[in-house]
């Protein structure tokens, strides 16, 4: 879809037919126009293209651009034009863009906005990133409890073009406190003279602006909602989070979790725009930490130097044994971390999951022990193969159990279970693997007197 | 929210007040009632609870239950009651439940359904899992192109209770071919006498039922849609995918990707319900494969046995060196895999990403080389530390570049980039790490004549 649309835009631009371009921009989805600009980004060309759009399309397209490009374009625009653009943008998107601008431009912009827009912008951009407040919008429709269905429908009709959704109308009192919600579905099926307070839903699911943004996505997904109201501590309606913003939150959160699973810190604004310096900072801490953690494995090897010198053939099997513990552990940890995150596994399931993992990893360990015994017997005698096979079983068991227990332990300590990343589990499994393998070798093969 | 609601249900059940329970079920979100039943699942108690719900609530709650519990309850229900339940369920959810039943029960159920429901059920459950067809619903509202706005609104009002969404109405011709879409927003803002064909949107984004389900989520999220129509090759409307189903798809797909990143195969129906046998089967293949892949590392060590025997102190640094390459590689691979999946990084970005990674990993490698040189000098002489520091730099560089290149390579071969899992990248990095380390040691330290 989008690739075809990009090609179509290119074609019309090359043809030089200005009217055709204007028409095209009116009918094509804003997301695709933005995608085209992002892919072929060049400051003055992009500004020239935006000039060919109606103010509404311009505002919508601008909202879809990559943050990096929004920032560059905004700082190259005449402030008056930027203020005009801001007036047409949805309130949550302009707050995001506003946060990207430098202080001088923010001030210049503010002076050109009407008081209402100014207050709204300041309020929305005051919430910390990652909170519900930072993803909510103030473009929602409100109706009074005392009115009728007919009255509410008329009001929705009038305000429809400015609102992000009119499929939910929020019922408020004189102090803007949220009283209830009416869906447009209920409104059009109700009789025109019915009173709003008689048909509104009052048993509401609400958020507060300081909750983590992930909570809004979790609740919207759990209850299949189009939007969810955000209220202050005193019950005043301060915004709504819509399903489409919740989907963006899910994508952001899952990206963060996946990065964390490989010990990469939170990257703002996408990988493509991330600077070398930022990528370095987000990766170095854990890498250095793990270097030191791996000293334990080295110390284990040093401790068994005599055994190794005597049976140097043992070294051949070292990498595959310790890697196996880490791999099985990473599997178990990943299953648990994701299970906890989606709510599939709760704290009360701890013992059951541990028991299941014991059985699964027993099966895995046995299979892998047999596999390595078959192949390894070509390389080493039966005594060493016994050590290798027994070690494999023990290492896979221990690695898997570490993988199950670590996320639960972190969860119980109210840390993020995702800290039990594959590299961390692997490092711990490595160290125990060294001890198990050479410990078993020393006790079964004995230390020869050299 | 849900924990409070669970407590409330418990309380009312214990009080024995039947009417209070009936009232509670009428007002509480179905997702929470289902959550309570799932958490406290016991066949006959659950059936007794469902008996206290109105048919509509019963159908909605049943749709929210875990697949495992749906299956158990369905097979313990009287077939007539199950058929009644099916009539009230949404068409996509009942198709999912139907697929869980055994053939005998499926037949018995079919005989009790009206022809319309039977055809719909057969059609929806005929699509392969993982396709758009398997997540779409047939509970959408259709209107003729020739009618007026007033006529369309009347029709939506009448059919509202049975439809998953009435916020999009699909305009079809006599052969059920999709002509356009009108949103309820447009309908209520248009004049009553306007004709549908004059206000409908005809430049449509559509799906086909055989597309991968992930595509529906990607498009709904990209274009911020409430629902997206699914059409056959001949343009006939066969279903819609709604935003809430798309959110479920995102969760499923991200779960699958995360599992894949740790070499775990696709687990059907949640971790909690997965059997020991299934977990074993989904984990064993890659584990055994990686055991054999790790033989390369072992062979590398064996090849350098003489060097190792001469400088046994080298072994102390082996685990941390090879782990560092794997860890840096896993970071790079995870960033790429997720970047490709979200569309943040495209094929044309390959060179730019590789160049960036070269700089980042140079910085990472230098930092880690300095860190290990400082600590390691307590343990080994300057010649060995030179070998260790240089190896660290080279290993981190090579590991990172493998991490960047492998996902792109897989992507180019039209394989799933997520196959470049942390364990696979680590295994490859381990083998190269062994060669780099001992190769460098042999050439710098020289092979002593014993």
Automatic annotation (TrEMBL), chains A, B:
<keyword id="KW-0472">Membrane</keyword>
<feature type="transmembrane region" description="Helical">
    <location>
        <begin position="284"/>
        <end position="304"/>
    </location>
</feature>
<dbReference type="GO" id="GO:0046872">
    <property type="term" value="F:metal ion binding"/>
</dbReference>
<keyword id="KW-0812">Transmembrane</keyword>
<keyword id="KW-0479">Metal-binding</keyword>
<dbReference type="InterPro" id="IPR006669">
    <property type="entry name" value="MgtE_transporter"/>
</dbReference>
<dbReference type="InterPro" id="IPR000644">
    <property type="entry name" value="CBS_dom"/>
</dbReference>
<dbReference type="Pfam" id="PF01769">
    <property type="entry name" value="MgtE"/>
</dbReference>
<feature type="transmembrane region" description="Helical">
    <location>
        <begin position="422"/>
        <end position="447"/>
    </location>
</feature>
<comment type="subunit">
    <text>Homodimer.</text>
</comment>
<feature type="domain" description="CBS">
    <location>
        <begin position="200"/>
        <end position="256"/>
    </location>
</feature>
<dbReference type="GO" id="GO:0015095">
    <property type="term" value="F:magnesium ion transmembrane transporter activity"/>
</dbReference>
<comment type="function">
    <text>Acts as a magnesium transporter.</text>
</comment>
<protein>
    <recommendedName>
        <fullName>Magnesium transporter MgtE</fullName>
    </recommendedName>
</protein>
<feature type="transmembrane region" description="Helical">
    <location>
        <begin position="310"/>
        <end position="337"/>
    </location>
</feature>
<comment type="similarity">
    <text>Belongs to the SLC41A transporter family.</text>
</comment>
<keyword id="KW-0460">Magnesium</keyword>
<dbReference type="Pfam" id="PF03448">
    <property type="entry name" value="MgtE_N"/>
</dbReference>
<keyword id="KW-0813">Transport</keyword>
<dbReference type="InterPro" id="IPR006667">
    <property type="entry name" value="SLC41_membr_dom"/>
</dbReference>
<keyword id="KW-0129">CBS domain</keyword>
<dbReference type="InterPro" id="IPR038076">
    <property type="entry name" value="MgtE_N_sf"/>
</dbReference>
<keyword id="KW-1133">Transmembrane helix</keyword>
<dbReference type="InterPro" id="IPR036739">
    <property type="entry name" value="SLC41_membr_dom_sf"/>
</dbReference>
<feature type="transmembrane region" description="Helical">
    <location>
        <begin position="384"/>
        <end position="410"/>
    </location>
</feature>
<feature type="domain" description="CBS">
    <location>
        <begin position="136"/>
        <end position="199"/>
    </location>
</feature>
<dbReference type="InterPro" id="IPR046342">
    <property type="entry name" value="CBS_dom_sf"/>
</dbReference>
<feature type="transmembrane region" description="Helical">
    <location>
        <begin position="358"/>
        <end position="378"/>
    </location>
</feature>
<keyword id="KW-1003">Cell membrane</keyword>
<dbReference type="Pfam" id="PF00571">
    <property type="entry name" value="CBS"/>
</dbReference>
<dbReference type="GO" id="GO:0005886">
    <property type="term" value="C:plasma membrane"/>
</dbReference>
<dbReference type="InterPro" id="IPR006668">
    <property type="entry name" value="Mg_transptr_MgtE_intracell_dom"/>
</dbReference>
């Amino acid at each position: 879809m989008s690739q075809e649309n990009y090609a179509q835009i290119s074609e019309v631009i090359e043809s030089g037919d200005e009217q055709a371009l204007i028409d095209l921009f009116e009918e094509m989805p804003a997301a695709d126009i933005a995608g085209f600009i992002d892919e072929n980004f060049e400051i003055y060309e992009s500004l020239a293209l935006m000039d060919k759009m109606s103010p509404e399309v311009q505002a919508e397209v601008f909202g879809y651009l990559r943050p990096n490009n929004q920032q560059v374009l905004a700082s190259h625009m005449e402030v008056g034009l930027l203020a005009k653009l801001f007036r047409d943008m949805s309130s949550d998107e302009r707050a995001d863009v506003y946060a990207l601008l430098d202080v001088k431009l923010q001030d210049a912009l503010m002076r050109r906005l009407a008081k209402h827009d100014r207050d709204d912008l300041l309020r929305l951009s005051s919430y910390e990133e990652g909170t519900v407040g930072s993803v909510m919008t103030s473009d929602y429709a409100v109706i009074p409890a005392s009115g009728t269905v007919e009255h509410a429908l008329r009001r929705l009709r009038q305000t429809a073009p400015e609102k992000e959704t009119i499929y939910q109308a929020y019922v408020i009192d004189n102090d803007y406190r949220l009283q209830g919600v009416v869906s447009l579905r209920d409104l059009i099926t109700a009789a025109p003279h019915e009173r709003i307070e008689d048909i509104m839903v009052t048993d509401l699911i609400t958020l507060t602006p300081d909750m983590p943004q992930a909570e809004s996505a979790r609740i919207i997904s759990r209850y299949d909602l189009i939007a969810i109201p955000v209220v202050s501590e005193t019950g005043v309606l301060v915004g709504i989070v819509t399903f489409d913003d919740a989907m963006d939150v899910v994508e952001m959160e899952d990206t963060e979790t996946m990065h964390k699973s490989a010990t990469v810190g939170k990257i703002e604004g996408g990988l493509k725009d991330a600077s070398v310096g930022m990528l370095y900072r987000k990766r170095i801490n854990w890498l250095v930490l793990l270097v030191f953690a791996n000293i334990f494995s080295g110390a284990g090897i040093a401790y068994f130097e005599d055994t190794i010198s005597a049976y140097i053939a043992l070294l051949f099997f070292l990498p595959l044994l310790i890697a196996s513990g880490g791999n099985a552990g990473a599997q178990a940890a990943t299953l648990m971390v994701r299970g906890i995150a989606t709510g599939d596994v709760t704290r009360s399931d701890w013992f059951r999951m541990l028991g299941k993992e014991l059985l699964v990893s027993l099966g895995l360990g046995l299979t892998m022990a047999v596999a390595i015994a078959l192949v390894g017997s070509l390389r080493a005698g039966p005594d060493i193969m016994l050590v290798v096979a027994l070690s494999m079983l023990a290492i896979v068991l221990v690695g898997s159990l570490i993988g199950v227990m670590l996320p639960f332990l972190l969860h119980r300590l109210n840390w993020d279970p995702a800290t039990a990343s594959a590299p961390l589990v692997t490092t711990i499994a490595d160290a125990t693997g060294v001890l198990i393998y050479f410990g078993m070798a020393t006790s079964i093969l004995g230390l020869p007197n050299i």
